[in-house]
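2024-03-11 09:14:02 DEBUG pipeline.ingest accepted 1 chain
2024-03-11 09:14:02 DEBUG pipeline.ingest length=211
2024-03-11 09:14:03 DEBUG pipeline.predict start
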Amino acid sequence: MFFFNRRPWAIHNPLKSWTFSELSLRECKILVASMSDAETKVSWAHLKGWPEWLPLSGEPCHHLFGYCEDEKNSLPAIPELNLNDDRDHDITQVHTDPGVAKFREYIVRKYPRYSVRIPSEILVGNQTFKTQTLNVSEGGFFFENPLPDWVAGYFTVTLKVVDGPSFEFTCFLAEDQKKEKYRTEIAPITKEQDFEAFKKWLENQIFPVSE
C-alpha cells in the first residue's frame, strides 16, 4: 500500500543558517513569505524525489512560492508638473502627511501590544538567555534586556507565566532594529496548537495596551 506524502518539502536558508524539512506546501509558502528578499535570493528548496537542492529563486519554484516579476514599471507614467498652471505650487518644501504616519504605524502594529512582564527563556542551540517581556502581542515580544549577539536565525522563546501556563514559540529577530535587539516575531512555523493556546490565554487577560 502506498501513502501520499503531504510533507515532502525542505527549505535551507544559508543567510540565517537554518534548515527545515518535512514541510507541507502551505508551510513552505508561509515560511517563504516571512523571508526577506535577500534571504529568498540565496536560499534553497528540495522536494522529495528531486535529485538535488534547487535555488528558491529558480524557475522550478516560481509557481510554488508565488514568485512574480518586478512590477515597478507596471504603474503609468507620473503626471508632469505644469509650472504655468495658475494654481499655487509649493515645490520647495516637503510636508509629512500625518495620515501617512498613522497608516504606517497601523501596518507595523498589526496586533495590539499589551504591557506585561513575563519571565522568558530564549534558547539557541545549547545557549540560554533569561529575561522578561515588557510587552507582548499575537505577533511577537519586546524584551526588557537587549538580546545577545548569538541570538540569530530561528530560535525558541518560552514564556513562563507566573502561577500560569508556559508557552513555547519559534521566533526570529524583528527587522529594522538598531545595534541592540529587543524585539522578536513569532515565526509561521510555530506549532498551531501552541499559538492558539497563547492567543486564547491572551484574550482572557486584562493587560494595559502598550503605546
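2024-03-11 09:14:41 DEBUG pipeline.report Helices lie at 25-33, 37-42, 59-62, 98-108, 192-203.
2024-03-11 09:14:41 DEBUG pipeline.predict end
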